[in-house]
């Protein structure tokens, strides 16, 4: 995909579409920090959000469309993630009245501003705020809840469910990794989004531990990875809470409960996979 040509065409469309009042380019492209596979994140400010959602011709001609994700985003603005041959454009559709008051913590580029009301772009990414106590509490509870459900799914030999709950646990682990890093090195450390380019900022020991936190699609490996993930989650959660002066959380009790669940494989075996999960070792299949 030719991003320059696509953005030029998008700008021409926006100029002749009266309902569109502003177009901003955000993300890594706006900050001049692009990878050959980087997307282009684009905010469309319009008086007719619903009309642009229904009429898809404005993005359909920007390249060869492969697949589309049409996201409602709950209470947030709707988005359209368009996967083109050789590229991807992520559009967010926002009421035009919000252009003057929009707040961005990272640099952006103004492609169209018909009413001259777009705010000034920050020159660099703004320093993120350290977590509030309720955020840490939420992440701790959500992380352990996911770990408990993952352990139960392993014992029930429901590995797909286990993988889904492991995904939830990894999301809370990432929050702890980011907070721990910022608390130790300063909040100005840019930890990006969803682990983007984590190798540029994450400590080598954390990266090393993470390499053992993912598993194959079998009970033994999933259980072993769960144990390693919760151990890392526990250590970082405790370190984050201590740095913020928060009350002690009984991580040992949660880890004990998770282990108790995993050991139920011995009492209620349902096949070789759950027995292996109890041992927490690799399984070598025996064939007659």
Structural account:
This protein has 288 residues and is of the alpha+beta class. It folds into 2 domains: 3-113, 2-Layer Sandwich (Beta Polymerase, domain 2), CATH 3.30.460; 133-279, Nucleotidyltransferases  domain 2 (Four Helix Bundle (Hemerythrin (Met), subunit A), Up-down Bundle). Helix content is 47%, strand content 14%. It contains 11 helices and 6 strands. The protein has helices at 3-16, 27-30, 49-54, 57-60, 133-155, 159-185, 204-210, 219-244, 251-262, 264-267, 272-279, and strands at residues 20-26, 40-46, 65-71, 79-84, 87-95, 109-113. It has a 6-stranded mixed sheet. Strand 4 and strand 5 (87-95) form a beta hairpin. Helix 6 packs parallel to helix 8, helix 8 runs antiparallel to helix 9 (251-262) and helix 8 (219-244) packs parallel to helix 11. The chain is elongated, with a radius of gyration of 23 Å.
Which helices and strands occur, and which strands form pairs?
Elements: H1 3-16, E1 20-26, H2 27-30, E2 40-46, H3 49-54, H4 57-60, E3 65-71, E4 79-84, E5 87-95, E6 109-113, H5 133-155, H6 159-185, H7 204-210, H8 219-244, H9 251-262, H10 264-267, H11 272-279
Parallel strand pairs: 2-5
Antiparallel strand pairs: 1-2, 1-6, 3-4, 4-5
Helix pairs in contact: 5-6, 5-8, 5-9, 6-8, 8-9, 8-11
Keywords:
6 strands; Beta Polymerase, domain 2; 6-stranded mixed β-sheet; alpha+beta; Four Helix Bundle (Hemerythrin (Met), subunit A); single chain
Q: What structural class results from the helix and strand content?
A: alpha+beta
The CATH class of the largest domain turns out to be Mainly Alpha
CATH fold-level topology of the largest domain? Four Helix Bundle (Hemerythrin (Met), subunit A)
Number of domains: 2
Radius of gyration (Å): 23 Å
Number of helices: 11
Annotated CATH architecture of the largest domain: Up-down Bundle
Helix content: 40-55%
- Shape, please? elongated
What oligomerization state is this entry in?
Answer: single chain
Q: Which ranges are low-confidence, i.e. pLDDT below 50, for 5 or more consecutive residues? A: 271-288
Summarize the main sheet: 6 strands, mixed
- Report the end-to-end length measured between terminal Cα atoms: 54 Å
Number of strands: 6
The proportion of strand residues reads 5-15%
């Amino acid at each position: 995909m030719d991003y320059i040509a696509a953005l030029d065409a998008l700008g021409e469309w926006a100029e002749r579409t009266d309902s569109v009042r502003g177009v901003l380019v955000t993300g890594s492209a706006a900050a001049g920090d692009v990878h050959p596979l980087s997307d282009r994140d684009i905010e469309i400010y319009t008086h007719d959000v619903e009309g642009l959602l229904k009429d898809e011709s404005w993005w359909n001609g920007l390249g060869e469309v492969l697949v589309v994700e049409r996201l409602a985003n709950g209470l947030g603005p709707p988005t359209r993630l368009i996967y083109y041959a050789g590229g991807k454009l992520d559009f967010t559709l926002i009421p035009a009245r919000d252009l003057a008051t929009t707040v961005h913590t990272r640099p952006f580029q103004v492609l169209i501003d018909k009413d001259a009301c777009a705010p000034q772009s920050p020159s660099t990414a703004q320093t993120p705020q350290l977590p509030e106590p309720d955020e840490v509490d939420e992440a701790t509870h959500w992380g352990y809840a996911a770990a408990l459900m993952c352990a139960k799914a392993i014992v029930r030999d429901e590995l797909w469910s286990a993988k889904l709950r492991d995904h939830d646990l990894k999301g809370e682990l990432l929050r702890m990794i980011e907070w721990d890093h910022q608390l130790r090195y300063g909040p100005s450390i840019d930890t990006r989004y969803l682990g983007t380019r984590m190798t540029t900022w994450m400590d080598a020991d954390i990266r090393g531990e993470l390499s053992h936190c993912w598993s194959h699609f079998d009970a033994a490996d999933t259980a072993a990875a769960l144990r390693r993930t919760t151990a890392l989650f526990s250590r970082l959660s405790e370190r984050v809470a201590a740095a913020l002066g928060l009350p002690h959380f009984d991580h040992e009790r949660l880890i004990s409960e998770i282990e108790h669940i995993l050991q139920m494989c011995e009492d209620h075996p349902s096949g070789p996979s759950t027995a292996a999960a109890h041992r927490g070792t690799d399984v070598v299949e025996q064939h007659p």
